[in-house]
């Protein structure tokens, strides 16, 4: 059955059904076992033109079905974020002979295979030589999505190509941000503690100074448009209303998107966004006009003591996962002198679930985040238990009071306070 040029979900599912039925019949006639993920499965299909035709039809329709079922934005988000890890991980496994190191009757956790994307743009008519948008290329006109793709492919994608060299030269890099694949690719030869963020602050390569940091800020502000990452989970994950006319310090708050969401829902709360001074102009541009007196910006380096004393909450969204333990502890200890007895430290970050608990797409996201943290920072994602251990290591008096997770999601709100 010829596939239409613009298939729908149902057409693809029907094509997969029909071609899988043909394929299994052909295999059975040739007395060849069906493919399987188990380690005694045949490595190849039989060389038979009919089998070849059927299985390519299944694979092509499955690729399109995957694309359409994610939808344009999530497809682009996933391609730019996760696809690069497939080839990087394959290279790491190959270079370090992991295939030989795992015994055939042992176990392995590596299962995801990269998929190449297409249907970004289409030809107007066959042989017309004119290109038109598809829904996917049209979705990529969003500046925030472009920033996300740019950061993931241009910053992190290039770094992935240096992962093998980084592991050979630095090993785990002693948790230093300047002993990473990102360092080899973007700023080789700098001090061990000179990391991606130092580079963003200094960078003037390929554009006006600060363009790369601004792009990173835009990319971060795109994150909450993803399923399970929406602001509502941060807003519902904590009793923000209990802070009344309180003050929230959004540490490493980038261009202020999280604070704006909190201040919009809780009109009596005031937020102070702290980040590099270079982000202030973009913060000002994106701040809604009616928020000027409630969401303000303060240049602050979180490796110095927290200057805002006695805030109700010190919010760290996607901050700690960028740092190895020794740095995380330093960041936390810089908050403690500023805290009053009832202040909270609110961590919004990945809370790694046990393997197999969340659906594959979510699990792939956690693995991708974990790998991206290693590539860029020599850091990693943490489980609930690891968060509890970390805060205790920073200060014996600190405890995790509550963890709220979105349904089927992996990004939690971890509330920490004095015992
Ligand atoms: C992964 S982003 C998270 C941004 C924002 N909290 C969010 O979740 O969208 C990490 C942020 O930490 C900021 N950052 C990195 N090092 C910092 C430092 N030493 N002091 C203050 N901010 C820093 C970066 O500029 C960036 O905005």
UniProtKB/TrEMBL annotation:
Domain O-methyltransferase C-terminal: 246-394
Record keywords, A-Z: Methyltransferase, S-adenosyl-L-methionine, Transferase
Top-level taxon of origin: Eukaryota
Pfam families, A to Z: Methyltransf_2 (PF00891)
Molecular function, one GO term: O-methyltransferase activity
BP GO terms, sorted: methylation
Keyword set includes Hydrolase: no
Protein name listed in UniProt: S-adenosyl-L-methionine-dependent methyltransferase
